[in-house]
Amino acid sequence: MTPATPPLAALRNQPMAWMTVLLAIMICGVIVALHLEQRRSFYDIVRELDTLRQARIDLSEGFVQFTMAGDPMLPFNREQGYVLIAQALTQIRTHAINLDASGEALAAYEMKEERFYRSLERWNMAEQPSPRETIALLLSFHELELEANGLDEDVRGKFRDFSIRIDQVFTFFLSLAAILLMIFAVVLLRFGHAQAVSEQARCQVERDLALLNSELEQRVAVRTAELERANQAKDMFLANMSHELRTPLNAIMGFTGTLLMKLPGPLTFDQERQLNTIQRSSRHLLSMINDILDMAKIESGRLEIHSESVNCQEVLNEVIEHLRPMAEQKGLELGLIAPQAAQILHTDRRALNQIMLNLVSNAIKFTDHGAVRIELSLPNTNHQVAISVVDTGIGIREADLPLLFVEFGRVNSAEVRQREGTGLGLHLSQRLAEMLGGIIQVQSRYGEGSIFTLYLPG
After folding, report:
1. What's the rounded Cα separation, in Å, for the pair 165 and 149?
2. Which pTM does this prediction carry?
3. Does the 308-457 domain belong in CATH 3.30.565.10?
4. Domain boundaries, the chain
């Protein structure tokens, strides 16, 4: 009886098997090296994301500390806030350099940073910051936050590109290794330990991935809690700002109204004209503050919608009566075209009133001659009610239409810049319309007029 050939002897008699084994070992070594490199790069990107997010959080916390340090009821220190802001901006600038070798991202960031520092210094040097300085500071801070968010998106894009490249390389090498190992298994049937080694490696990778996922979840939870605290501080700041600005504004509007009623005595023509200017400016500033606060409520999810049965014609008549003095002052006709039967909507009355006030006041603002009218139609085939605001104003160029509903977006033309506005009204109206289950659409011809149509469920 011929003794069985020992496994090692069989292996020595198979040079092709040895070559296959060596090649498979080399491929596995490459895979392990790539895996280690992937893990190092992955941790680097995660650290970069964490650092950038922490810098954004520090920027928000420092801004809140700096701007609210004057309130004795709050435990904030202005110097600590300024140091926190400077450290956060340095971190963000470093990431801008790392992300973009051409310097475009750094140039865009430094421009926003310089504008923010100027607004911050003006606001800090003023003994009693004016509303304009406060709004300028908020706008520059908002622009800086948007730039930091853009850098964060760039890091995420880098992470996605890296993952795609790694997946492609791993797919190629893993496929090649699988083919070689299959050949090795066919040639050396008695050596099945290769499968056990492969299974052990796979289990180790799964354990590593599970551990990594657990660490990422913990980091996300911590960062989420920190962001919630930052949002709470922002809400507190907006609430305090609204109170501090509304109180003197209401006093200004009240005393101006008393003077215009001529209760203290007669006024000269110039005095009456100047008081009217003060009154218009105060109302515009109060409207802007209300828009900012409403936007903050919408973004934080604290703006509640209370649906009820609403007589649409009644709301539209209230809007017309409220804005008729504004239209008459410009010599414009203001009217309503509506069905005779009452149109009842199940919606939020306050939100509908605010949307229509914004749309009609915008139409009057950008119309110098002719008329502004509201047209109410019956429900269409999609059970939608359309409320259109038609004007004979300056119109809108087609290239400028995408800017209409963007937050703080204003058309950059001389005809628009000379008229009051912050770029919040249409954006706020669109958000309110979406909360009511509707949408605002626009049609316009430059030099002929515009039609803004609000569609709501009937």
Report:
1. 25
2. 0.45
3. yes
4. 7-191, 308-457
